[in-house]
Every structure is written in C-alpha cells, then in structure tokens.
Design brief:
alpha+beta; 6-stranded antiparallel beta sheet; about 45% helix; Serine Threonine Protein Phosphatase 5, Tetratricopeptide repeat; 4-stranded antiparallel beta sheet
Length: about 450
C-alpha cells in the first residue's frame, strides 16, 4: 500500500510539474483520501491552490501540514507567501518570522521580511533583514554559498576593485589595509590567464581565490549613509507639474531635475563610491551592479524611496518599494539594452557629475511610449531582447530620449520598454556613470 501511495504521489507531482493542474489536483486529492496526513502532498496541493488564486484554501492546506509537523519549513514558507498574497501582511510577517526561527539561514524568508517591512512602513526593521541577506550571501559564512560571483571574476571587475581600493586610500580610510588589498588584487591580476574580452568570466581556482585572502566580493568597507534631517527629496520640486506630465503631457513618463537635496546627493554618492558592494558583474556586459538585498540598502536609500512616494502620491499611489539596484558603467561601448521592469512604477536617477560626461547626448534614458500587448510578461533581460526589438520595429517615432544629467530623475510606467545608449564618460574611478533604479508596486 505504501509503495502505491508513493507512486501516486509521484504521478501527481509529475502532472503538477508539467502544468496539468486539474489532473494534479485530482491526483493529490486522491492520495489524501487514503492518507490525509501526508505532509508533502498537503503542501503541494496548497502550492497548486495558491497558484490558482484559491489562496484561502491554500492557507488551510498549509495549516494542516503545520498541525502534523510543526517544523515542516516548506509549509511555513509557502503559508507565509500565501498570507502575503491574500493581503494579510501582518500575519505574513509573523509567518516569515516563524520560518526563520526554524531555519535561521533561510535566505528567502529574510529577504521577504525586508520587503514586507518596507510595505508596512518600517524601514528601520527592513534594514535589519537586508543586512542579514547580505551577511548570508557575503558574510563570514559565505563559503557555503554557491553564488558564482564568489568564485569567478572578470578583468573589468578586478580592475574596478583595485581602483576603488586606491580611491579609498585617498580618503584616509584604514589606509594600510586598503593599500594592502590593492596590492594583493594587482598581484592576482598578473597571475590569472585572461581572455581577450575584459568582460569574459573566468572561474577562479582555489589557489587564485587564496590570493585575495577571503576579501573577494566581500563587504570590506561600507560608508555611512544615514537619513537626512528634513527629508532627502528636494522640497521645491513642482509635484503638480510632474504629475501632469506623467498623466497627460507624456502619458506614463515624467522627468525632472534636482531630485535630491544637495546634502542627500553628496551623502548618497559618497556611499556608492566608498562601499564595496559592487558584486554583480554578469548581469549586463560592461556594467557592475549592486542590489537592495546585497549591500545597496542603506537608511538613506530607503528614506529616498519613502520621500518620493510622499512627494508624488498621484503617480505612486500606495505602491511600496519592491526592489532597487545601481548600475555602474565601466565600458563606453556597452549600452543597457531595451527591457521592461517587473513593477508598477519605475524611478531612475543619476548621481555622477555632469563634468564627467563626454557626450551629453548619450548615456541618458530612451523610453518607448508604445505600450506592450496585454499579458506581456517580463522573462529575462537577455531572453526578452529579440521579442522587444520585433515589437518596437516601426515605432521609433514613439521614443522619448531623456539626456543624462546628475540628479535628474525619470518616473515612468514600468511596463514601457526602455534602455540607455552606451555611456561615454571620462576615465577615473569617480567619473564612472552610476544610475539608480527603484521599482515600486507590482504589475
């Protein structure tokens, strides 16, 4: 009998994996008729119900699992996600916290709690969990993390890190240690057999990794980025004019200058220059990236997000911050190609001084006002490009070009396709083009 139950459970999973949801549900329920206390099947049925928007029924299934096995982590995790899906945010926060009690290193629950506390207006608590997500990926226990960025690199990435250490040395910050790191990285550069392309990824051997002394892609330094008294966003911005542009003049798009106060801009730029958080070198060729959960989160960034929501309620509505990243351009011949964001509203702004921009007509943002077809789903930056290019063919007259400028911001409907021309900035660590993207709400 037991073997038969296991066979039928496996068949149900096969239906589920293949997308035959009706068959899978029937098979799960058939198994449960014979073994109503089967945790894995109860959990899988709950996942299926949640994906079919029968969230209350899904929550009931997860509760049954927890009654059978209080430490069954998948049920707690899926149950927390279902509660959030149902809009029961406070309960979801408690449920994610229970996941962490059982499994303190559950990365997904830590990240979910960080974002959920943002939604609930508690950026102080959100920071605690974003600090934990970075620690789990980059901290003392990171050796068990399979992330490829810990065991591979590019010539452009290492060159950037050396430049950053040398910049930090000029700031008189732990100069002896910074100089030592710069020398170690320069030595490692000479002992790696580099391919011709500066962005080609090279897998590092254990001996090569040892050259970095466990400092590679580690948060060696983080600058202070405290909140700004009186607000980070410029109080003199004409929110009415920006909202009118977004709603009527150029529907779905509005751009304006002087987003941040001078103090907030200087403090945030210092954070980006002085913090070793530029871990991702593989997402877009020619760029390094930093993410909310991987070092970019700081009190000032979260304050900026809340201030933007407060300043532009007619655009932002009740959309919370759901993700943020920073891109740093290392190569003048590489653009950020056309793509869409998986959110409701996107904010893009730039922090590098205009004096570094050698081609003011380049390096800004192109946005196509032609809305994608209903149901268009964001898949992957690389995978989406061909389909997007095909859709935009013949629609070149529906492109808005926003030129680059420091502290210039663009608010736009996240569904609109957008990208930037290749930046052409002068050489030098402080001159590299940095743009910030914040995503608010969901599609």
């Amino acid at each position: 009998m037991s073997n038969d139950i296991e066979r039928r459970a496996a068949e149900a999973v096969a239906h589920h994996s293949a997308g035959r949801l009706a068959d899978a549900e029937a098979a799960y329920r058939d198994v449960l008729d014979d073994r109503p206390d089967y945790p894995a099947v109860l959990h899988n049925l709950g996942v299926l119900l949640a994906s079919s928007d029968r969230v209350d029924d899904a929550i009931d299934q997860f509760s049954k699992v927890m009654a059978i096995d209080a430490d069954y982590v998948p049920a707690h995790w899926s149950g927390a996600k279902a509660l959030q899906q149902a809009g029961r945010f406070e309960e979801a926060a408690d449920a994610y916290a229970r996941v962490i009690v059982i499994d303190p290193e559950h990365y997904g629950a830590q990240l979910a709690l960080g974002k959920l506390w943002l939604r609930l207006g508690r950026r102080d608590r959100a920071m605690d969990f974003f600090a934990r997500t970075m620690d789990l990926r980059r901290g003392e226990n990171r050796a068990g993390n399979p992330d490829r960025s810990l065991t591979s690199t590019t010539r452009a990435k290492l060159s950037h890190d050396i430049e950053q250490f040398r910049y930090l040395a000029t700031q008189k910050r732990d100069r002896e240690r910074v100089d030592s790191l710069a020398r170690a990285y320069a030595s490692a550069m000479k002992r790696i057999d580099w391919p011709g392309e500066v962005d080609a990824i090279v897998e590092l051997s254990p001996d090569q990794l040892a050259l970095f002394g466990e400092s590679y892609n580690y948060p060696n330094f983080q600058a202070d980025a405290a909140e700004v008294d009186g607000g980070a966003v410029n109080s003199e911005l004409d929110a009415g004019a920006v909202t009118l542009a977004f709603k009527e003049t150029t529907p779905g798009v509005a751009w304006f200058d002087d987003l941040l106060t001078p103090d907030a801009l200087a403090r945030f730029r210092r954070y980006l220059l002085s913090s070793t958080i530029w871990f991702d070198f593989s997402h877009i060729s020619g760029f390094l990236a930093a993410y909310l959960e991987d070092g970019l989160a700081c009190p000032l960034l979260l304050q900026i997000a809340d201030d933007v929501r407060e300043k532009f309620p007619g655009i932002m509505g009740d959309h919370p911050l759901t993700q943020a990243w920073a891109f740093k351009g290392l190569a003048g011949d590489k653009p950020i190609d056309i793509h869409a964001d998986d959110a409701a509203v996107s904010l893009n702004f730039w922090v590098t001084p205009d004096s570094a921009d050698l081609s003011p007509e380049r390096g800004g943002l192109d946005i196509y006002t032609a809305s994608p077809p209903e149901g268009w789903a964001v898949s992957d930056y690389d995978d989406d490009k061909a389909a997007i290019r095909s859709f935009l063919k013949g629609r070149e007259d529906q492109k808005i070009t926003v030129p680059y400028a420091q502290n210039r911001a663009v608010l736009f409907n996240s569904r609109l396709f957008h990208g930037s021309d290749a930046p052409n900035f002068t050489e030098g660590y402080e001159n590299q083009r940095i743009n910030i993207t914040m995503l608010f709400g969901e599609r």
